[in-house]
Amino acid sequence: xxxxxxxxAAPLVAQQPAKLQRTxxxxxxxxxxxxxxxxxxxxxGGLRLTRKGQWEAGVHFxxxxxxGRWGAELSAGYTPERVRQTTSAGAAGSRRTHLxxxxxxxxxxxxxxxxxxxxxxxxxxGIMHRQMSxxxxxxxxxxxxxxxxxxxxxxxxxxxxxxxxAEDLISKLDFGTGKKIxxxxxxxxxxxxSW
Length: 195
Known about the structure:
The protein is built from one helix and twelve strands. By secondary structure, the protein is mostly beta strands. It has a single domain, classed as Porin (Beta Barrel), CATH 2.40.160. The strands form two sheets. The protein has an eight-stranded antiparallel barrel. It has a four-stranded antiparallel sheet with strand order 2-3-6-7, with no helix packed on it.
């Protein structure tokens, strides 16, 4: 009888290590959160321009190496990006630039190919397009950016996970006061589906 139980249990035991390594190589994540711009204020003919945080929505598509230690990711997102306009006499209203952006990054760390919580840092390049520029609402603007990111993914089941992202789009732009470093932080939470 003992031999019979072992004959049944042995194949199940042998299968356990395989379950620890996830086989899904790609993942699509839909996310939403908050856009937090930083950097010095701008100036347009004596009108002080201050960029303010707004909601942000985005999508990430990642592919991960079998080793579970690195991957590559494409992301895209949108935020209204509000610009507050102030005169020496006080507030003069606000407007939106309608910022869309795309990024391409390499990621390193513990990827979703491994079981448990994933943690990956990334770096790459991005592009930012404003339908209405910060300085002039009648003109659009497009610029390149460097990108740094941090991702934490908590698995819900074998294919779905809760993902938290912090992405920094780093650019050097002139908003009427000379070229200065600008940081646009995209802080999001979303659900990732892998296959």
